[in-house]
Structures are given as C-alpha cells and as structure tokens.
Specification:
The protein has 18 helices and 13 strands. It has helices at residues 2-16, 25-33, 49-58, 70-82, 96-107, 125-129, 153-156, 161-164, 179-188, 216-224, 239-251, 265-276, 310-317, 335-345, 351-366, 371-378, 391-394, 402-411; strands at residues 38-41, 62-66, 87-90, 113-116, 133-138, 170-174, 195-198, 206-212, 231-235, 256-259, 282-285, 298-303, 327-333. Helix 2 crosses helix 3 (49-58) and helix 14 (335-345) runs antiparallel to helix 15 (351-366). It has 412 residues and is α/β, with parallel strands linked by helices. The model has no long low-confidence stretch (mean pLDDT 91). Bound molecules: adenosine-5'-diphosphate and magnesium ion (MG). Magnesium ion binds next to loops.
Length: 412
C-alpha cells in the first residue's frame, strides 16, 4: 500500500510537476481509486481537476469528463497535452473529421481522458460500451441541481449514468454548493452512498464589505481613488447599467470597459484578453464575465447591485485576490435591488428555489454579525470565531441599546 501511495506522488511529480497535494486532493483521489462514488466540494482554484486527472492516469481505460463549457474543456485538454497526457474533447462544435479522429483514438485505447459536453454524451454510448471506462467525472456538478445557481437542463440527463455505467465510479465536483445542493447532486446522480469531501471555502485575504446603495456612482469613484492601476471588476444586474457605469468611469478618466453577452463574441474575447494582460484595469460586467478567467492579481470586486444568491456572490468576489494578497469585495445593497431580483425570479420554473436563495442573500446583506462566519456557515462549514477582516468586524455597528432606555424608564 505504501508503494502505491508513493507512486501517486510520483504521478503528481512526473505528470503535473507538483511536489505536494493541496488540502483534500489526496483523500479524494484515494476515494476514487478505491472505486467509491465521490462528491468533492472545493473552492475555485482549489485544484479539483487533479482529483480526476490523476486517477485517470493511475487506472486502466479512459476517463470520461463531463464539462459544461467548450472553452473550459479546451483549456484543460491543452494543458494535459502539454504535459504529455493523452486527452481529447468531443463536442458538437467540432468538425466531423476531428470528432472521428477522437473516436478512433478512443476505440484503440489511446485516450486517458475524454472531455464531453453533456449534450454529446448520449451520442457516444455505443463507443463507450466497446471500451474500458475508468471513471466518470462530472465537473461543475452544481449545474445538475435546481437548488444550484447555474442549472443546466442537459445535466439532468446525467441521472442515467448509473444505468449506462453501473460499475464505474463517479466523481462529481463543484466549487459552489450549499448543503441542500450537495444532497441534491448526490441524489440526482444516485451516488448517495458515496463519499463527500468539503474543503474549506475560507479566503482569509478577501475583505468583505456591504454598503447601502445610495449614490453608488459617487461611492464607486471614491472607492477607486486610491486604487490606481489596480485591476477590478464591477458587476451590474443589467447590460444597460454596465454600459452606463463604464461610461461614467471613462468620463472621469478611468480605463474601463463594459462586458456583457450582447457584445459581439470577437470584441468580448478582446476585452477579456486586455483585462487579463493588464491593458484594461476595470471591467464593468454582467455575471457573463469571469467564468474560466485565470487572473491572479484582481484586487477588488464591486457588486453594483446585490447578487441574486450567495453562491454567485462568493464565486464573483472570489475572482479577486487569487494571488493571496489582500483584496476587497464591496457590495451595494438596496431594497430596490431585492424588488428587481424578485421580479426576475417570478414566473420561472424554479421560482421557489430562487426566491429562497434571494432571501438568504438579503439576510446576509442585512446581517450585523461577521460576514465570513455567515458565509462559511452557509456552505456548511462550522465556524465560531469572528474573522477580523470584514466591515462588521472592523467597524462594529453601533447597536441601539434598548437596556439603557428600559433602565431609565424603570427608574423614573
Ligand atoms: P478548480 O477546478 O478547483 O477551480 P483547477 O483544477 O483548475 O482548480 O486548479 C487550479 C490551479 O491549481 C491550476 O493551475 C492547477 O495546476 C493548480 N494545482 C492543482 N493542484 C495543485 C497542487 N497539488 N500543487 C500545485 N498546484 C496545483
Ligand atoms: Mg475546475
């Protein structure tokens, strides 16, 4: 057994170039290699990919990796190939010759990992039946749950995995799932009997602050005064407001750009690249911006409006301070935001879930206790101590002291 352990470290070193595992990686890898179904909850950047990539190398056969975004697939496959690992992806946007080549390689056992979009998966079951499948990884697994914040219908079909691959270990991974979403993921994938690993979500270098949303633009300008040349993201609720806010910043001499799904794809990737390469420091965006962007020196994130749920909020502020240096998450909150968000949720198929999540978000914004404690507890981590690095800890609100008045009344 100790020899096998050593060989895992060797795989880590020779294929990935790392000397040690990150927290929970080794335990998760052991679980997968033991043939257990596994749920891994780990913050963004925590190193989830390795938890299925390394077992894929250690086991015979091909690992199927289900991933929701073609861009994410391509990045991971490129990185694996650069490390000499035989990996490909398959999706509907590929030319058919490329698809055929991938399937050929699969059939002759030349693939250690195959990334597949959930929509394409069921077209390939015939091929999978003729090959050895080592494991199935469901990345961004929160997409399967209506309780999650990024529900995708194609993911619901994944409950059929157990019928197609009854002998194959499934590992589901995500960065953002509260306890109810975790349970729901396991239920839907039918892996309730599996192991669950929840890594700490704490990002101690992130300062969290919530402010009333009056005169936001003035507050933003004030906030930016001592942040010259720092990179940051401002999230707005609507496309229109991203443009309005960006315009106002540009008028004050800031290099800021609006980013939303209505902008042409080519222009969008140009903006993204300019941001990553420090040519544009400030992006004013809808939540369309950020997924899959690997930029370590984002110093602040502003929520111009209250986000619609805590998962999104934490994911978005988590895009700052990835280098471990201090970063600032500032959120504006007003009742008008709540009204607007309620309107968005009303009439949708998942209205009740969304309204429940919105209410938790509002409670978070209005709370007068340590922000980090509230957040970590929300994600199922038991925390008792105040963090000392949020607005509430740094500037305790002055409570209205009813006891003094009561004493005065009684003694009168
Ligand atoms: P996640 O999917 O959890 O957001 P990734 O799997 O993309 O995170 O990993 C984030 C970064 O951490 C990648 O650059 C990856 O190479 C790196 N990483 C992962 N595991 C380790 C490790 N054990 N040691 C050092 N770096 C690691
Ligand atoms: Mg990932």
């Amino acid at each position: 057994r100790s020899r096998r352990k050593r060989s895992r470290r060797e795989l880590l070193k020779t294929h990935f170039g790392f000397d040690s595992f990150r927290p929970n990686q080794e335990e998760i890898i052991e679980s997968v290699l033991a043939g257990e179904h596994t749920l891994a909850i780990m913050p963004t950047g925590g190193g989830k990919s390795l938890c299925f990539q390394l077992p894929a190398l250690a086991l015979e056969g091909t690992a199927i990796v289900i991933s929701p975004l073609i861009a994410l697939m391509k990045d991971q496959v490129d990185a694996l190939n650069a490390n000499g690992i035989m990996a490909s992806y398959y999706n509907s946007s590929q030319p058919s010759e490329a698809q055929e080549e991938v399937l050929n390689n699969l059939m002759i056992g030349q693939l250690q990992l195959l990334y597949v979009a959930p929509e394409s998966l069921w077209n390939l079951t015939n091929y999978f039946q003729k090959t050895e499948i080592s494991l199935i990884a469901v990345d961004e697994a929160h997409c399967i749950s209506a309780w999650g914040h990024d529900f995708r219908p194609a993911y619901t079909q994944l409950s059929r995995l157990q019928d197609e691959f009854p002998q194959t270990p499934i590992i589901a991974l995500t960065a953002t799932a509260d306890r109810a979403t975790q349970d729901d993921i396991m239920k839907q994938l039918r892996i309730e009997n599996g192991k669950r690993f929840v890594s700490s979500f704490d990002r101690p270098n992130l300062y969290m602050e919530v402010r009333p949303g009056q005169q936001r633009i003035q507050q933003v300008l004030q906030f930016l005064k001592d942040k010259e040349n720092q990179s940051g993201i401002i999230y707005c609720l609507s496309r229109k407001s991203t443009e309005k806010v960006a315009e106002k910043l540009v008028a004050k001499g800031y290099k800021a750009k609006a980013y939303h799904a209505g902008i042409e794809a080519e222009e969008r990737s140009r903006i993204q690249e300019d941001f990553v390469n420090d040519r544009i420091p400030i992006i004013v965006a809808t939540i369309a911006f950020g997924m899959g962007i690997d930029k370590s020196n984002v110093r602040w994130v502003i929520h111009y409006n209250m986000p619609k749920n805590i998962e999104g909020y934490y994911q978005e502020i988590g895009r700052s301070g990835r280098d471990g240096l201090p970063a600032h998450g500032l959120m504006f909150y007003s009742f008008a935001d709540v009204v607007q968000l309620r309107k968005f949720a009303t009439g949708t198929a998942t209205e009740a879930f969304q309204l429940a999540k919105l209410e938790r978000m509002q409670q978070f914004a209005e709370a007068l206790s340590c922000r980090r404690k509230a957040l970590l507890n929300y994600f199922g981590e038991h925390v008792i101590q105040d963090c000392g690095n949020c607005d509430i800890c740094k500037m305790p609100p002055k409570y209205f002291d009813g006891t003094v008045i009561a004493q005065k009344i009684c003694s009168a």
